[in-house]
Write a structure and sequence with these properties.
Blueprint: H1 2-5, E1 27-31, E2 37-40, H2 48-52, H3 66-75, H4 88-95, H5 113-125, H6 129-141, E3 162-164, E4 170-172, H7 201-212, E5 216-217, E6 220-221, H8 225-232, E7 244-246, E8 251-253, E9 260-264, E10 269-274, E11 279-284, H9 295-303
Antiparallel strand pairs: 1-2, 3-4, 5-6, 7-8, 8-9, 9-10, 10-11
Length: 305
């Protein structure tokens, strides 16, 4: 949104303006047994707005569509966390070989649009995303404990990930594909927009407070008030149920008097904000098993009684 305010990109810009490899991407209609696909042409280009609203048709594989999990394995796409020395742009270039699960703007599919957005932002800003984020957002907000790769002085603060075994006993999580020490790996430069940024509850509260304060921050302003309105507006009308709508990279309640916005993370992290009451909440559990944990839902219900 900072670049949008500066006129360096538009929400309805085709992604191919910044990433030419998107000019030839198509919809995957079906997947053959040999993992080759049957494709059809796009009726409209993928835009930045599509990337920010999960309406782009680029699903997750491991936590999304099985056929795309197969394709991501075939083309070596990292679809959640970094695992090696590839750059963000290299990963996205591999991604474009797989196709979309539906036409852009015609359905809501949770996925990798925000990862593609990182590559777009690097082109639009002319600098690596981690550096742009540090200069333009993290430092102005005083988010000193937030980074894709933790500096040595903060590495001991990283909390290990835990999960329950079949007997309900807590044990350290061992993911079959990803290692959870990626925040310590300076040799893994890939920055994902949907996962991988490590933070503290206090740091993230500072970010949420900026939204509650409509772009105002101590000592100045980060975003215009009208930009916060744009951030929280409905950008996928008709594609979500009646209880909430898709803002730009966030979910927003459809009850104007409530003013709530929220999102969650892979290791049972969750934030809530309420523009009407000024309340914010950050939950960071660092546990594995999204489908088996409704702590955040319970907390949200208590918060909104």
């Amino acid at each position: 949104m900072i670049l949008w305010e500066r006129g360096q990109l538009g929400l309805d810009d085709p992604v191919s303006i910044y990433l030419p490899e998107f000019a030839n991407i198509e919809v995957l209609d079906s997947l053959r047994d040999d993992s080759t696909g049957v494709h059809s042409a796009l009726v409209r280009p993928v835009t930045i707005r599509h990337l920010m609203t999960h309406t782009n048709g680029i699903p997750y594989g491991d936590i999304g569509e099985e056929r795309f999990a197969k394709l991501y394995a075939k083309y070596g796409v990292n679809d959640i966390f970094p695992t090696d020395g590839r750059s963000t742009r290299e990963n996205i270039s591999r991604l474009t070989q797989t196709g979309l699960t539906h036409q852009p703007g015609e359905a809501w599919t949770y996925g990798l649009g925000l990862d593609v957005l990182v590559a777009v932002l690097e082109v639009a800003s002319g600098e690596p995303y981690a550096e742009f984020l540090r200069t333009e957002l993290l430092d102005p907000l005083g988010m000193d404990h937030t980074a894709f790769v933790l500096p040595p002085e903060h590495q001991a603060d990283l909390v290990e990930v835990w999960e329950k075994d079949s007997a309900g006993v807590w044990q350290k999580h061992k993911h079959p594909k990803y290692t959870t020490d990626y925040p310590l790996r300076s040799d893994w430069p890939m920055c994902a927009g949907g996962a991988g940024l490590t933070s503290s509850a206090l740091d993230y509260a500072r970010f949420l407070q900026m939204i509650i304060d409509r772009g105002d921050i101590p000592g100045g302003r980060l975003l215009e008030e009208s930009t916060i309105d744009t951030l929280l507006a409905d950008h996928a009308p008709g594609l979500i149920d009646d209880n909430w709508h898709q803002g730009l990279a966030c979910a927003v309640t459809n009850e104007p008097a409530n003013g709530g916005f929220w999102w969650g993370g892979y290791f049972n992290t969750q934030y809530f904000g309420n523009s009407s009451t000024g309340e914010i909440a950050v939950l960071m559990k660092q546990t594995y098993g999204l489908r088996n944990d409704n702590t955040s839902l319970t907390f949200y219900e208590v918060m909104n009684r």
